[in-house]
Each structure stands twice: as structure tokens, then as C-alpha cells.
Amino acid sequence: MSEKVTVKQLEQRLARFEAQEIIRSCMNKYMAICDDLDAKTDLDELMGLFSDEAVWEGVGRYAKSFGRLEGQSEIRAMFAKYTVEPSHFSLNVHFLTNEEIEVLEVGEEDQAIGNWLLLQTSTFASGKSQLSCAKITARFEKAKDGEWRIAHFQTERKFSRPVVDPWEAEADLPVPE
Question: Which pLDDT belongs to residue 106?
């Protein structure tokens, strides 16, 4: 026979589900901003997704490319390099999959860990294109204002390769007659 679930237990479950949804939304917003990084990008909006003491780092083979950035000012400076004319990207699309979000605490010091696989299709201003895949691991913290923010973002390259033709082409999409 199953035990009765208390109202408090139901409230905790609901809080975890709500936290997962907010965290998912935070990561999707991060990727959407990164899809459109250019001179018009509002870095304040992007930085609003991070805690004040956040860490952003490349690990494994991405350690050399990105290094470890500590605090919002270092993270902002890295993203600012992508927000100048001419734009670094002419096309940049991030696809997240294999999501797993675990809320570790619900209460006074809320934290969560999220894992995703990222597939990134990019065409650079030079016309060259790239297909990359990375494992994203992010720790989130619930701030005093009640918002969930990225406290530690890690990206680890799984593969990356140049693509001969640019992703976007003028050809129409073939459809049945």
C-alpha cells in the first residue's frame, strides 16, 4: 500500500517542477541571445541571466579556446567581442537536446544542475561554416530576488568540423508538385 502524500510534499514537488521550467527558460533565452549575437545585442539582457559571481568556462578541448572567466565583467568582455561590426557570425543557430535538470535544494539555498548536448551550426562573416557539438553543464542558483540565474556555465567540445558550403543557400526548399 502506498503512503499518503502530504500537502508539504506536493508543494515541494511543485516548486521543483516550477524551478525546472524557469531554468529551462533561462537556458533557452541564453541560446536565443547567442543565436543573434551582433552589434545590436543587449549585453545587459544576457548578463541578467548570470549571477554576479558567475563562472563561464571552456573545459577539455575548449579550455584553450575559451579559458575560464570569473565574474560578470569578464563574461561580458568575452561576449562583447562578438557584438562589434562586422559581425562574427552571419548565421548562428544553437540546438539543445538530451536535457536533464536536477533541482538540488528547494528552500533557503536553492541550486540546480542542468546538462544538455548542444549542436551549433554557424556561418562566419568570412563565409566559412562550422558544425560543432558540445556538452553543456550549468549550475544555477536562485537569487534573493527569486530569479534563477546561471552560476557556473561549462562547455566541453565533443566534435567540431568545417562545412564546405554555407548553411544558408538561395535555393528554394523542394516541395512536392
Answer: 58
